[in-house]
Automatic annotation (TrEMBL):
Pfam families: Response_reg, Trans_reg_C. One of its GO terms (biological process) is regulation of DNA-templated transcription. It is found in: Cytoplasm. It comes from Paenibacillus contaminans. Keywords: DNA-binding, Phosphoprotein, Transcription, Transcription regulation, Two-component regulatory system. This is DNA-binding response regulator. The modification 4-aspartylphosphate is found at residue 54.
Length: 236
């Protein structure tokens, strides 16, 4: 099995060492950075499968580091924040983060989330993913094997979680899902601190796939319940 390489960026030395210790117990290879600038340099020099970013770091903070990383890669990014303000969480997700955890956190829950993200991310390269068909809907084409989405023949740049969310919707057209169901299916976790993770990802996804995000025709809101993907699934 290919070695999984993780980057941990946090200005707290004790947290860096704790995360490195527990993640290495899971046989992951772990590099650490004390600030966002160092994290970006390491990312340029190495190939990572997942990044853990602290929100408040010197030189380059987690939000800016996330924004820059997302411009280059769709690897899962998990934000760590000591703040309990909704704005910080939403901002991190809006910059392309796939998930977040608020400090202080359970190290066992964090490891579980990392493992869940890795299962979701790496399965795209497995034989199971390679056997899945193209999924077409109107102007959209979702190529699971190539981890790519096009609209009217033009490529759309999606993060790992945006892709997984769209794929899940498209594989289950016309079915209504609550935010909790979507979180557990796409993030593969029983932990849901609030609705922001799902809501922000749906809002970002709509801006990329809808003709008019303010009047979505594909990912529709079912008031009081959740969301559904409108239309039939076509496979090629």
């Amino acid at each position: 099995m290919k070695e999984i390489h993780i980057l941990v960026a946090d200005d707290d030395k004790e947290i860096r060492e704790l995360l490195k210790k527990y993640l290495e117990r899971e046989t992951y290879k772990v590099d650490t950075a004390a600030d966002g600038e160092e994290a970006l340099l390491l990312f340029e020099r190495n190939s990572y499968n997942l990044v853990l970013l602290d929100l408040m770091m010197p030189k380059v903070d987690g939000i800016e580091a996330c924004r820059r990383l997302r411009m280059k890669s769709n690897v899962p990014i998990l934000m760590l924040t000591a703040k309990d303000q909704e704005l910080d969480k939403v901002l991190g997700l809006s910059m392309g983060a796939d998930d977040y955890m608020t400090k202080p956190f359970s190290i066992h829950e964090l490891v579980a989330r990392v493992k869940a993200h890795m299962r979701r991310y790496l399965v795209l390269g497995s034989e199971q993913a390679a056997e899945e068909p193209l999924i077409r809907h109107r102007s959209l084409c979702i190529d699971v094997k190539k981890y790519a989405v096009t609209k009217n023949g033009e490529g759309i740049n999606l993060t790992a979680k945006e892709f997984e969310l769209l794929k899940f919707f498209a594989m289950n057209p016309e079915q209504v899902f609550t935010k909790t169901q979507l979180f557990r299916q796409v993030w593969d976790s029983a932990y849901l601190e609030d609705d922001n993770t799902v809501m922000v990802h749906i809002r970002k996804l709509r801006t990329k796939i809808e003709d008019d995000p303010s009047d979505p025709k594909l990912i529709q809101t079912v008031w009081g319940i959740g969301y559904r993907f409108a239309g039939e699934k076509h496979e090629a």
